[in-house]
# Entry
Amino acid sequence: MAIWRKLYPWLLAFRLKTLTAALVPVMVATALCLSLNLFFDWWVSLYALLGAFCIQIATNLFNDAIDFKTGADCEKRIGPQRVTQTGLLSEKQVWFIGFAFLGLACVFGMPLVLRGGAPIVILGLLSLFLAYGYTGGPFPLAYLGLGDLFVVLFFGLFAVAGTAYLHALHVNGAMVVAGLQIGFLSTVLIAINNLRDSETDVLVHKRTLAVRFGDGFVKIEIALLCLLTYALNFYYLVALEKLYVLISFAISPLAVFLVGFVFAIEDKKHLNKALGLAALHQLLFSILFSIGLVMG
# Structure
Protein backbone atom coordinates (compact mmCIF):
# COMPACT_ATOMS: atom_id res chain seq x y z
CA MET A 1 0.00 0.00 0.00
CA ALA A 2 2.85 2.37 0.79
CA ILE A 3 4.35 1.77 -2.66
CA TRP A 4 0.96 2.40 -4.27
CA ARG A 5 0.58 5.71 -2.41
CA LYS A 6 3.92 6.81 -3.84
CA LEU A 7 3.19 5.56 -7.37
CA TYR A 8 -0.40 6.79 -7.64
CA PRO A 9 0.35 10.53 -8.02
CA TRP A 10 2.86 9.79 -10.78
CA LEU A 11 0.50 7.50 -12.66
CA LEU A 12 -2.11 10.24 -12.37
CA ALA A 13 0.38 12.82 -13.65
CA PHE A 14 1.41 10.64 -16.60
CA ARG A 15 -2.27 10.53 -17.75
CA LEU A 16 -1.96 6.95 -18.97
CA LYS A 17 -5.28 7.10 -20.84
CA THR A 18 -3.79 9.69 -23.19
CA LEU A 19 -1.01 7.33 -24.28
CA THR A 20 -3.31 5.84 -26.91
CA ALA A 21 -2.62 9.06 -28.86
CA ALA A 22 1.06 8.03 -28.95
CA LEU A 23 0.33 4.36 -29.64
CA VAL A 24 -2.02 4.56 -32.61
CA PRO A 25 0.23 6.54 -35.03
CA VAL A 26 3.01 3.96 -34.66
CA MET A 27 0.55 1.08 -35.00
CA VAL A 28 -1.07 2.52 -38.13
CA ALA A 29 2.28 3.44 -39.74
CA THR A 30 3.62 -0.06 -39.12
CA ALA A 31 0.49 -1.67 -40.58
CA LEU A 32 0.66 0.61 -43.61
CA CYS A 33 4.29 -0.27 -44.29
CA LEU A 34 3.52 -3.97 -43.92
CA SER A 35 0.63 -3.66 -46.38
CA LEU A 36 2.77 -1.82 -48.95
CA ASN A 37 5.78 -4.15 -48.54
CA LEU A 38 7.84 -1.26 -47.15
CA PHE A 39 8.39 -2.70 -43.67
CA PHE A 40 12.01 -2.64 -42.46
CA ASP A 41 12.32 -4.05 -38.92
CA TRP A 42 10.29 -4.30 -35.71
CA TRP A 43 12.91 -2.43 -33.68
CA VAL A 44 12.04 0.71 -35.66
CA SER A 45 8.43 0.62 -34.50
CA LEU A 46 9.44 -0.32 -30.95
CA TYR A 47 11.84 2.61 -30.51
CA ALA A 48 9.39 4.98 -32.22
CA LEU A 49 6.68 3.84 -29.79
CA LEU A 50 8.87 4.17 -26.70
CA GLY A 51 10.03 7.62 -27.80
CA ALA A 52 6.44 8.70 -28.46
CA PHE A 53 5.34 7.50 -25.02
CA CYS A 54 8.14 9.48 -23.38
CA ILE A 55 7.34 12.68 -25.26
CA GLN A 56 3.62 12.28 -24.51
CA ILE A 57 4.28 11.83 -20.79
CA ALA A 58 6.68 14.79 -20.74
CA THR A 59 4.06 16.95 -22.49
CA ASN A 60 1.46 15.91 -19.92
CA LEU A 61 3.80 16.75 -17.02
CA PHE A 62 4.75 20.16 -18.43
CA ASN A 63 1.07 20.88 -19.08
CA ASP A 64 0.25 19.99 -15.48
CA ALA A 65 2.91 22.32 -14.05
CA ILE A 66 2.32 25.22 -16.45
CA ASP A 67 -1.49 25.21 -16.20
CA PHE A 68 -1.13 25.26 -12.41
CA LYS A 69 1.26 28.22 -12.58
CA THR A 70 -0.97 30.21 -14.96
CA GLY A 71 -4.11 29.41 -12.98
CA ALA A 72 -5.78 27.40 -15.74
CA ASP A 73 -5.99 24.50 -13.28
CA CYS A 74 -7.88 25.84 -10.29
CA GLU A 75 -10.59 24.78 -7.84
CA LYS A 76 -13.29 25.57 -10.45
CA ARG A 77 -11.87 23.06 -12.93
CA ILE A 78 -14.23 20.18 -13.77
CA GLY A 79 -11.71 17.95 -15.57
CA PRO A 80 -9.68 15.05 -14.14
CA GLN A 81 -7.52 15.66 -11.08
CA ARG A 82 -4.20 17.43 -11.67
CA VAL A 83 -1.34 16.59 -9.35
CA THR A 84 0.36 19.99 -9.12
CA GLN A 85 -2.88 21.89 -8.53
CA THR A 86 -4.02 19.47 -5.82
CA GLY A 87 -0.60 19.32 -4.14
CA LEU A 88 -0.05 15.59 -4.68
CA LEU A 89 3.31 16.48 -6.25
CA SER A 90 5.35 19.65 -6.15
CA GLU A 91 5.87 21.80 -9.23
CA LYS A 92 9.62 21.13 -8.96
CA GLN A 93 9.09 17.36 -8.95
CA VAL A 94 6.82 17.50 -12.00
CA TRP A 95 9.29 19.62 -13.98
CA PHE A 96 12.20 17.35 -13.08
CA ILE A 97 10.49 14.13 -14.14
CA GLY A 98 9.18 15.83 -17.28
CA PHE A 99 12.71 16.65 -18.39
CA ALA A 100 13.83 13.15 -17.40
CA PHE A 101 11.29 11.71 -19.86
CA LEU A 102 12.57 14.03 -22.56
CA GLY A 103 16.03 12.60 -21.87
CA LEU A 104 14.65 9.08 -22.25
CA ALA A 105 13.03 10.10 -25.53
CA CYS A 106 16.46 11.18 -26.77
CA VAL A 107 17.92 7.80 -25.81
CA PHE A 108 15.21 5.91 -27.72
CA GLY A 109 15.53 8.35 -30.60
CA MET A 110 19.24 7.84 -31.26
CA PRO A 111 18.87 4.55 -33.22
CA LEU A 112 16.06 6.20 -35.20
CA VAL A 113 18.31 9.14 -36.10
CA LEU A 114 20.95 6.71 -37.36
CA ARG A 115 18.29 5.02 -39.47
CA GLY A 116 16.43 8.07 -40.78
CA GLY A 117 19.06 10.82 -40.86
CA ALA A 118 18.41 14.55 -41.05
CA PRO A 119 14.58 14.47 -41.42
CA ILE A 120 14.30 12.50 -38.16
CA VAL A 121 16.73 14.87 -36.40
CA ILE A 122 14.57 17.85 -37.36
CA LEU A 123 11.30 16.12 -36.45
CA GLY A 124 12.75 14.85 -33.17
CA LEU A 125 14.05 18.25 -32.10
CA LEU A 126 10.73 19.90 -32.93
CA SER A 127 8.87 17.25 -30.93
CA LEU A 128 11.15 17.67 -27.93
CA PHE A 129 10.80 21.45 -27.96
CA LEU A 130 7.03 21.44 -28.45
CA ALA A 131 6.55 19.01 -25.56
CA TYR A 132 7.24 22.16 -23.53
CA GLY A 133 6.14 24.74 -26.10
CA TYR A 134 2.61 23.35 -26.30
CA THR A 135 1.72 25.15 -23.06
CA GLY A 136 4.97 26.96 -22.18
CA GLY A 137 7.48 29.42 -23.57
CA PRO A 138 6.89 32.83 -25.16
CA PHE A 139 4.39 31.46 -27.72
CA PRO A 140 2.47 28.62 -26.00
CA LEU A 141 0.45 26.97 -28.76
CA ALA A 142 -2.42 25.89 -26.52
CA TYR A 143 -2.86 29.44 -25.21
CA LEU A 144 -2.86 30.94 -28.72
CA GLY A 145 -5.58 28.70 -30.15
CA LEU A 146 -3.08 26.66 -32.16
CA GLY A 147 -3.38 23.47 -30.12
CA ASP A 148 -5.72 21.78 -32.60
CA LEU A 149 -3.36 22.39 -35.52
CA PHE A 150 -0.43 21.16 -33.42
CA VAL A 151 -2.23 17.91 -32.64
CA VAL A 152 -3.17 17.26 -36.29
CA LEU A 153 0.45 17.75 -37.30
CA PHE A 154 2.42 16.13 -34.48
CA PHE A 155 0.05 13.43 -33.22
CA GLY A 156 -1.10 12.58 -36.72
CA LEU A 157 0.69 13.64 -39.87
CA PHE A 158 4.27 13.79 -38.55
CA ALA A 159 3.88 10.82 -36.18
CA VAL A 160 2.45 8.46 -38.81
CA ALA A 161 4.48 9.67 -41.79
CA GLY A 162 7.61 9.93 -39.63
CA THR A 163 7.32 6.34 -38.41
CA ALA A 164 6.53 5.11 -41.94
CA TYR A 165 9.53 7.06 -43.27
CA LEU A 166 11.78 5.22 -40.82
CA HIS A 167 10.73 1.96 -42.46
CA ALA A 168 10.52 3.01 -46.12
CA LEU A 169 12.97 5.96 -46.13
CA HIS A 170 10.49 7.89 -48.25
CA VAL A 171 6.99 9.34 -47.82
CA ASN A 172 4.03 8.67 -50.11
CA GLY A 173 0.42 9.79 -50.33
CA ALA A 174 -0.95 6.93 -48.25
CA MET A 175 1.30 7.88 -45.33
CA VAL A 176 0.06 11.48 -45.48
CA VAL A 177 -3.61 10.48 -45.66
CA ALA A 178 -3.26 8.02 -42.77
CA GLY A 179 -1.47 10.70 -40.76
CA LEU A 180 -4.33 13.13 -41.32
CA GLN A 181 -6.90 10.53 -40.24
CA ILE A 182 -5.12 9.77 -36.98
CA GLY A 183 -4.45 13.47 -36.45
CA PHE A 184 -8.14 14.27 -36.85
CA LEU A 185 -9.12 11.68 -34.25
CA SER A 186 -6.47 12.96 -31.83
CA THR A 187 -7.78 16.49 -32.34
CA VAL A 188 -11.26 15.31 -31.35
CA LEU A 189 -9.76 14.57 -27.93
CA ILE A 190 -8.23 18.03 -27.50
CA ALA A 191 -11.37 19.70 -28.85
CA ILE A 192 -13.54 17.95 -26.24
CA ASN A 193 -11.02 18.86 -23.56
CA ASN A 194 -11.09 22.53 -24.60
CA LEU A 195 -14.88 22.52 -24.83
CA ARG A 196 -15.07 21.25 -21.26
CA ASP A 197 -12.61 23.83 -19.90
CA SER A 198 -13.69 26.91 -21.88
CA GLU A 199 -15.16 28.75 -18.86
CA THR A 200 -11.97 28.46 -16.81
CA ASP A 201 -9.63 28.92 -19.80
CA VAL A 202 -11.09 32.32 -20.63
CA LEU A 203 -10.24 33.54 -17.12
CA VAL A 204 -6.51 32.96 -17.69
CA HIS A 205 -6.49 34.15 -21.33
CA LYS A 206 -6.05 30.64 -22.71
CA ARG A 207 -7.44 31.38 -26.18
CA THR A 208 -8.46 27.92 -27.37
CA LEU A 209 -10.87 27.60 -30.29
CA ALA A 210 -13.67 27.10 -27.77
CA VAL A 211 -12.81 30.44 -26.16
CA ARG A 212 -12.28 32.25 -29.48
CA PHE A 213 -15.31 31.01 -31.40
CA GLY A 214 -17.64 29.45 -28.84
CA ASP A 215 -18.91 26.01 -27.93
CA GLY A 216 -21.05 25.60 -31.04
CA PHE A 217 -18.02 26.02 -33.30
CA VAL A 218 -16.10 23.30 -31.47
CA LYS A 219 -19.03 20.88 -31.57
CA ILE A 220 -19.19 21.30 -35.36
CA GLU A 221 -15.40 20.87 -35.50
CA ILE A 222 -15.68 17.54 -33.68
CA ALA A 223 -18.38 16.32 -36.07
CA LEU A 224 -16.36 17.35 -39.15
CA LEU A 225 -13.17 15.72 -37.86
CA CYS A 226 -15.00 12.41 -37.40
CA LEU A 227 -16.66 12.70 -40.81
CA LEU A 228 -13.38 13.48 -42.61
CA THR A 229 -11.64 10.55 -40.92
CA TYR A 230 -14.11 8.08 -42.39
CA ALA A 231 -14.38 9.86 -45.75
CA LEU A 232 -10.62 9.53 -46.28
CA ASN A 233 -10.96 5.74 -46.03
CA PHE A 234 -12.09 5.77 -49.65
CA TYR A 235 -8.64 6.99 -50.72
CA TYR A 236 -7.23 3.51 -50.02
CA LEU A 237 -10.07 1.86 -51.90
CA VAL A 238 -9.62 4.04 -54.99
CA ALA A 239 -5.85 4.64 -55.04
CA LEU A 240 -4.56 1.40 -53.55
CA GLU A 241 -7.47 -1.04 -53.96
CA LYS A 242 -7.36 -1.79 -50.23
CA LEU A 243 -10.92 -3.05 -49.80
CA TYR A 244 -10.57 -4.37 -46.25
CA VAL A 245 -9.74 -0.91 -44.87
CA LEU A 246 -13.48 -0.36 -45.00
CA ILE A 247 -13.93 -2.69 -42.00
CA SER A 248 -13.08 0.36 -39.88
CA PHE A 249 -16.62 1.57 -40.70
CA ALA A 250 -17.79 -1.08 -38.23
CA ILE A 251 -16.93 1.33 -35.43
CA SER A 252 -18.64 4.34 -37.08
CA PRO A 253 -21.80 3.99 -34.93
CA LEU A 254 -19.63 4.87 -31.92
CA ALA A 255 -18.50 8.02 -33.76
CA VAL A 256 -22.14 8.94 -34.45
CA PHE A 257 -23.04 8.33 -30.81
CA LEU A 258 -20.06 10.40 -29.64
CA VAL A 259 -20.99 13.38 -31.81
CA GLY A 260 -24.63 13.18 -30.71
CA PHE A 261 -23.54 12.92 -27.08
CA VAL A 262 -21.33 16.03 -27.37
CA PHE A 263 -24.09 18.06 -29.04
CA ALA A 264 -26.65 17.01 -26.40
CA ILE A 265 -24.53 17.73 -23.31
CA GLU A 266 -25.59 20.72 -21.22
CA ASP A 267 -23.60 20.03 -18.04
CA LYS A 268 -19.94 20.13 -19.07
CA LYS A 269 -18.94 17.70 -16.32
CA HIS A 270 -20.29 14.96 -18.59
CA LEU A 271 -17.69 15.83 -21.23
CA ASN A 272 -15.24 13.72 -19.22
CA LYS A 273 -17.29 10.72 -20.37
CA ALA A 274 -17.19 12.03 -23.93
CA LEU A 275 -13.41 12.25 -23.68
CA GLY A 276 -13.26 8.58 -22.69
CA LEU A 277 -15.54 7.65 -25.59
CA ALA A 278 -13.37 9.61 -28.02
CA ALA A 279 -10.22 7.84 -26.83
CA LEU A 280 -11.96 4.46 -27.14
CA HIS A 281 -13.20 5.34 -30.63
CA GLN A 282 -9.73 6.39 -31.76
CA LEU A 283 -8.20 3.17 -30.47
CA LEU A 284 -10.85 0.86 -31.97
CA PHE A 285 -10.84 2.68 -35.31
CA SER A 286 -7.05 2.44 -35.48
CA ILE A 287 -7.05 -1.27 -34.66
CA LEU A 288 -9.66 -2.09 -37.32
CA PHE A 289 -7.99 0.25 -39.81
CA SER A 290 -4.61 -1.42 -39.23
CA ILE A 291 -6.09 -4.89 -39.58
CA GLY A 292 -7.78 -3.82 -42.81
CA LEU A 293 -4.52 -2.46 -44.21
CA VAL A 294 -2.63 -5.67 -43.50
CA MET A 295 -5.44 -7.82 -44.93
CA GLY A 296 -5.26 -5.82 -48.16
Observations:
- Residues 21-295 form one domain.
- The chain is about 75% helix and 0% strand.
- The chain has a mean pLDDT of 90.
